[in-house]
Amino acid sequence: MSENTFCAARRRILANRITVRGFNGGTATNKGENQSAMIREILEYPDPRLRTIAKPVDEVTDDIRTLIDDMFETMYDANGIGLAATQIDVHKQVIVMDLSEDKSEPRVFINPKVEVLDGDLEAMQEGCLSVPGFYEDVKRIEHCRITAKDRNGEEFVLEAEGLLAVCIQHEMDHLNGKLFVDYLSQLKRSRIRKKLEKLHKQSA
Ligand code: QAP
Ligand code: CO
Q1: Closest CA to 137 of 148, 149, 126
Q2: Those residues with Cβ within 8 angstroms of residue 196's Cβ, 6 or more apart along the chain or in another chain
Q3: Which residues contact 142 (CB under 8 A, 6 or more apart)?
Q4: Known binder of ligand: residue 7?
Q5: Which CATH number covers residue 128?
Q6: pTM value?
Q7: Does the beta carbon of 127 sit less than 6 angstroms from any atom of ligand 1?
Q8: Scanning 19, 120, 185, 203, which has its CA 20 to 30 A from the CA of 105?
Q9: Which residue's CA is the closest to the ligand 1 atom numbered 17?
Q10: Cα(181) to centroid(ligand 2), Å
Q11: Do the annotations mark residue 170 as ligand-binding?
């Protein structure tokens, strides 16, 4: 994947969403713009709360569905493609994702488990809503099978490759308190940390 693929893909996704909004003449019919859902604050690296290990969800209740709605609202508002509950300081095993250009493919993963189907590693440029403005190559398993529950508590199995496989592994890392910067060299990671700390001080 080339250097600018991530940015280009995001620009494309954004341009498309703006068009969709214009077409509808409003936001009411757009998925992820649920009237009652709330945009939550996204924790940013190096916030120590991002290191918390998430607990499995016992039962998919209305409270969990409210959490899911808020997570979509927060992710779409920030122009993200994936968000783990950890990132909004809720330490439950819940992930939301939408890799489409028009918010048409919302996906929910509750208590996800990953099984390696092909141990080959593939490098892809990653970003993270908790590490805004930084994009780096990370090597991850190319082909995996995910078992998880959906928003109705139904179990499903999904084979993933490409961006979907990368994104699910990235988000599952969040549930285990891990960030993509942990895969980088110490030097790169500390540069990112220092730049973000400086920004946080400025906006405090
Ligand atoms: C994880 O990341 C991911 O820095 C999801 O200024 C990303 O949604 C997995 C974002 C890439 C695989 C490949 C980041 C938005 C979004 C930023 C995201 C930013 C605005 C990141
Ligand atoms: Co992330």
Answers
A1: 126
A2: 44, 45, 46, 131, 132
A3: 118, 120, 121, 122, 161, 165
A4: no
A5: 3.90.45.10
A6: 0.87
A7: yes
A8: 120
A9: 132
A10: 10
A11: yes
**pLDDT averaged over the chain?**
88
Q: Where are the alpha helices (DSSP H) in the chain?
A: 5-24, 62-77, 162-175, 186-203
Q: Quick one: how far is CA 135 from the chain centroid? A: 14
pLDDT by residue (tens digit) across 130-176?
999 999 999 999 999 999 999 999 999 999 999 999 999 999 999 99
Q: How far is the CA of 82 from the centre of ligand 1 (A)?
A: 7
Quote the tokens at residue 22: 């214009």
Q: Catalytic positions, please?
A: 171
Its domain, for residue 91, covers 5-203
Q: Which two tokens stand for residue 176?
A: 């285990």
The set of residues, in sequence order, having a beta carbon less than 8 Å from that of 83 and lying 6+ positions away, is 42, 71, 74, 75, 95, 96, 97, 129, 171
pLDDT at 115 over 90: yes
Which amino acid is it at 85?
A
Residue 167 annotated as part of some ligand binding site: no
13 pLDDT exceeds 80?
Answer: no
Domain count, the chain: 1
So what's the pLDDT on residue 36?
A: 86
Which residue has the CA at smallest separation from atom 11 of ligand 1? 126
- Of 107, 164, 167, 196, the residue with max ligand 1 atoms within 8 A of its CB, to mutate for a pocket test, comes to 167
